[in-house]
Every structure is written in C-alpha cells, then in structure tokens.
## 1
Amino acid sequence: MSEIDPAEAERHKAKMAKRKAVQDAEVAGKTVAEKGLLIVNTGPGKGKTTAAFGLALRMLGYGRRVGVVQFIKGKWHTGEKDAFAAFGDRVAWHTMGEGFTWETQDLQRDIAAAEAAWGKAQELMADPTISLVVLDELNIALRYDYLDLEKVVAALKARREGLHVVVTGRNAKPALVEAADLVTEMGVTKHHFSAGVKAQQGIEF
C-alpha cells in the first residue's frame, strides 16, 4: 500500500466529518421508529423477485416468520423454494400460479388461480406470527385484471400494523405505486436474454 500524504489524509478526515454530521442530522430528523412497509419491486429489469427473497432472508435472519404467495409462477421448479424449505415452518410458501398467461391461454382458469392466490395472501397477512409477506408477481395479476385493483389496494393499505408486504412484477398499477411506502423500478441496461442466453438454473429459477 502506497503512503498517503498527511495533508490529503487531513482533508479526507475533515470531509468525512462533515459527511457524518449531515448523515447524523438526517437520521435524527426521522420521527417514525418502526412501520410496516408496503414495498413494490417493478420495472422491466431482472431482479424484482430476487430482491424480495433477499429481504425475506434478512427477516429470517432475525428469527421472524415469512409468507410467500406466487401468483403466476407455478410450472418451473425453483431453487429458492428448495432453499427456503430448509427453514421449515418459519416460511409459509404457496406456489399457486398456473404458469405464464401465454402458456395457460385460459382466462377463466387464470382468474380462478389469481383469486385463490389472493385468498391465501389475505390469510398470511392476517397471521400475527408472520412479519413479512412476499406477493410474487401480483402486479401481473393486476395488470391483466384478474383481481379487483381497488379491493387489493384497499386490503394492502389496511394490513395489520407492523406487517411488511413486498409486491413484485412488471407494470405496477399507479394506484398501487401511490399506496406504497417504497417503490423500486428495476431498469434494463443489458440483459443476456437479448443475446440468446436461455433461462438458467440458479440464475432465473
């Protein structure tokens, strides 16, 4: 490691001291200690579900319970389902999708599956032992009007105090975005799929 000029080190120290003062003041200005959050991961980029499961893993790390409802995915065997199975009953996992809409090609069947998944989601949200509920691809079900948007948003807004909910999927409806506490838009800069690379085990599923 090269030697650092003492004057440069002092400038760095002064700069970081100012930065810390700004950060400390910002944190001190926050008035809400804890709040159950409605989080939306949307956008065309890869990583929406992956981010949600990362949050679920973090919650499990603190000994809390997590619920997962998958609204669309159902055909593929996924590594994350097997991984979370290792946590036993600390994870309530429900894969209730019939596959992507272009696979089923059956509107009535898709609506029925979405309604069943939403019913399960409401059960998990009402369970006081669960701290986080992941509603994977709920945005897709809402996009295709398989569920009543107004009723879903109202139920999410009325969730019990302290419950965190993560909704994933492209094209989040404006009403859901408005109701959310945190919205992350996953963008696409470059994607291997465009270069002809198929979905891979451990990366996409």
## 2
Amino acid sequence: MAFALKKRGPSNFERAADGSMTLIEHIRELRTRLFRASLAIAVGLIIGFLLAQPAFDLLKQPYCRLPGMIVDGECQNFLQLAPTDGFVLKLKLALWIGLIIGAPVWLYQLWAFIAPGLHRHERKWAYVFVAIAAPLFAAGAVLAYFVVDKGLAFLLEAGVTGTDSQLEVTRYISFVTNMILLFGVAFEFPLTLLMLNFTGVVSARRLLGWWRAVVFVCFAFAAVATPDPGPFGMTLLALCLSLLYFVAVGVAFLNDRRKGRGKEVYAGVGDDEVSPLEFDPEPVEAGQRVDGSAPVAASEPVAAPAPIDRRYDDMT
C-alpha cells in the first residue's frame, strides 16, 4: 500500500530570505510575530505578578540598611501618597519581571523577523553579540544595586532631613530601577566598539589611540551617573568601564590579525609621505639622433573646403 507524501512548501523565513514575500505578507508576518511576543509578555506578566512582592523586598534592602530604619526587628514602611500607588507599583514590577521572563520568546520573534534580511556572517556575529550583551547587562545591574546600597546613606545624610526620614515608595523604586537600567546600558559600550571594528569602520590601532579620551569620558560619566558623590562608587564604575574598553580593544586586535588588517601595501605610509615604488624599471635605449639640417618633406596640401552658399535670412 503506497502513501503519497505531500511536499512541504518553503516557510515564511525561507521566503523572506529569498525576497519572494510580498508587502502584505511581510505585514502579516509582523502581525504574527508581534502577537506571539505579546502573548509571551502576558504570560510573563502573570508570573511576575506573583513574584512582585519578593522583587520589592529585594529592592528595598538598601532602604532598610539605613541607620534608624530597623525598629523592633522590622524595617519601617515607605510613605504612600495615594491609595492606588501600591497596586500600580506592583503592576510595574510585574511588567519588568514579565519582560525578563518572556525575553527569550520576544527576542526570538524580533530576530526571526529581521534575520532574513541579513547575510550569513552577519547572523553569526549577531548571535555572538546577543550572547555577550545579556551577561554584560546583568553585571551592570548588579553593580548598580551595589552602588545604590552604598550611596543611598550618603545622599540622605547630606540632605537637611537626615537618614531617619521616610521615602516615597514609587519614587524610590523608580530611582533604583533607573540606576539598574542606566548601568546595564552603560556596560554595553564595549559591544558598540566591537561592532565598529567587526564592520571595518575603525581599526584596533585607532581604538587604542583613543584611550585617553575614553578613560576621561568613563570617569566623567561615572561622576554624573553614580548617586554617591564620594570617590568609591564613581571610581568603581569608571574602572569597570575602562577595563571593558581595553578588553574590547584586545578582541579588536585579534580580529584585525585574523582578517589581515594592517598588512596592506600602503598601511605603513603616512598621509604626507611618498610611497615607495617596489619594482625594477626596464632600461630604455637611446633613440636615433635627428639632424636638424636635414630637409623635411613637405606634406601634401590640404584642399580648402568649398564655400557654402547662404542667404542673409538663413540664421533666423
């Protein structure tokens, strides 16, 4: 008994890669990807709603470590200005957790929509950069939590209210989450340099030549970003960013060596320097001498063109 197997047609990914999809099909593909990404975030939001309270307890630990905040073994409560502030804050934390939990799904949907327009080597390096970006962002988030823990006491002690004052809950959580986001994005700075090098925009030697300016920018950014105006948090962040910069430069040197950059014919020649000519010219023999007294044969006369008969009004 024979069975006829139906041949599977090309998938949307394959059709988008070879350019056979129409504009309407691209829009439908985008709609499908957005729906799947939204569904994953919604599922993560439900899970995040259950984990919002443990996340809030973790974020309030720097506040509870302030002097005078522990009374009878318990941390004092935050100040809440509106009845809905607590519920809205729980929804915000649940959304943050939902984005983190659903990140593998919505990042894949985004990648599946963009990848057909990339070359094979571009896809390979995109996988590498995404795999590096996640640990770097996590490292920046951990450092931000540590800096907030050490710098919050100084901020309150430097004010006129003192450290025993209650903080408003929504502003405090916004302060902590913004610091985590800022430090996490700042730790992606080496990836930007590597992208410029891997695409051939700048060489590793050029990146290394910027080290003085980069170190200065790192310390200036750390001085503005850290809440603690003391030298501890600023120096820690600046040193981490500088270290990541030099690691990125080292990887760029390895990439240039792998691709053979810097070995071009005119690589070692300056802009104002004459390039050497590395070839042996063939000798040219002297030609026969021409005597000026010898008569020169007259060329044949050229007939003058025939006159053109024109009237005075031909030009009009």
